[in-house]
Amino acid sequence: QKEVEQNSGPLSVPEGAIASLNCTYSDRGSQSFFWYRQYSGKSPELIMSIYSNGDKEDGRFTAQLNKASQYVSLLIRDSQPSDSATYLCAVNLYSGTYKYIFGTGTRLKVLA
Amino acid sequence: KAGVTQTPRYLIKTRGQQVTLSCSPISGHRSVSWYQQTPGQGLQFLFEYFSETQRNKGNFPGRFSGRQFSNSRSEMNVSTLELGDSALYLCASSALSYEQYFGPGTRLTVT
Fold this sequence. Notes:
heterodimer, A: about 110 residues, mainly beta, six-stranded mixed sheet, about 0% helix, B: about 110 residues, seven-stranded mixed sheet, four-stranded antiparallel sheet
């Protein structure tokens, strides 16, 4: 089992819809969780971090964390074609030393 | 604040050569991590340096090495280049929050 799993997609949503991206992780020692966006040919950029159970909102983005079920999700409201990118989930866990693990990403396509 | 910078942005090398890549973190960030990104493998963790010490290491051969200087700038070196080393090499810096901020990357092509 991969430590951080994401559906590779592509996930296609119409413009204006809500895009829902999911990520599961295997290690219950995971402590902090991050979402990054990566446009083709560019480097990843941090969208949001979340550290405790529940929802965290930032503009059109909402991160949701459920440690009991070991998943973290990202909702993008009012999706725009400019949101089309690969979204990477990352987990920071402590296992003797801190490890930072990325999922392989979900490709999102927002259709105009 | 200035972002993470990486030099050079593009490199073309021949098999068997060695290469050194440089990364300057965001001011005040003491942790620098290096990643290799290829289309098939995604982001693969190479190593992390904190206060001039290697704190974590990924599963890469010994041909891949790095170091960090007292001003937190970091370099990574790849010796005896192989065709499979062609990739985008990304550097990320972070502070205590563990949020990582990436540089633009160095695209290495090995011919």
